Amino acid sequence: MKKIKISPSILSADFSQLGKEIKKLEVGGADMIHVDVMDGHFVPNLTIGPPVIKALRKYTSLPFDVHLMINPVHKYIKDYANSGADIITIHPESCESVSDSISEIKKFKKKVGLSLNPDTEIGVIKDYLGEIDMVLIMSVFPGFGGQKFINDVLEKIRNLSLIKKNLNLKFDIEVDGGINFSNFKDVLNAGANILVSGTTIFKENNGDIKKNIDFLKSI
To answer: What is the CATH number of the domain that holds 119?
Structure first.
């Protein structure tokens, strides 16, 4: 049985209590903390920057899974690496050179993720799959939490999982967007091993975080 990891998105947390919310996630069995960084340009929303991530770092020893939805991205990699990110995920659309940005992340001894929007083909990143640690497949168009899962993305997960197997590669497959108790098993069965979830983890079962995380691992 494959190891399932849960990366709760703090986009759905109480922003006035972020430190306490992160502690709750750690106690509840989260494997990492998903931090969505949006610039109001690459996506139509604004969220947190390096100073906030740095301030939150002291609340947990869990890895910070930082998803950079910003453009341009390259010049900000250093800031996020130094703020406490452990995994830095970028979109190929926001890179002048994907290879250079991968190298920049590795320079700071961080894990590298590449993200695919629902309408971005796997071929865009295929040449880099041997160099990275994770592919983040977006199952909604990034920008806001609480969106409905796009079912067509399941085929992309299956295809990526097949490529991974055929090439004998080791990268994680993470999926983010609209993950809930009705669809998470389909996502895992398609080949994902890391689930990002915000609303479901923080809101279901009257906010029982541990119960919700445990259920998402119950395939």
So the answer is: 3.20.20.70
Q: Look at residue 144 and tell me whether its pLDDT is greater than 80.
A: no
- Annotated active-site positions, please? 36, 176
Residue 149: closest CA among 120, 125, 182: 182
Torsion sign (Cα): 26, 219, 176, 198: negative
How many domains, the chain?
Answer: 1
CA 84 to chain centre: 15
Q: For residues 101 and 111, what is the distance between their CA atoms, to the nearest angstrom? A: 12
How do residues 46-83 score in pLDDT, each as one tens digit? 788 999 999 999 999 999 999 999 999 999 999 999 99
Q: What's the 3-state SS for 137-171?
A: EECCCCCCCCCCCCCCHHHHHHHHHHHHHHCCCCC
pTM more than 0.70: yes
Pairing of strands 194-197, 172-176: parallel
Q: How many whole angstroms separate alpha carbon 91 and alpha carbon 11?
A: 19
What confidence tier does 44 reach under pLDDT thresholds 50, 70, 90?
confident
Crossing angle, helix 18-27 and helix 209-216, to 10 degrees?
50
Domain extent at residue 80? 5-216
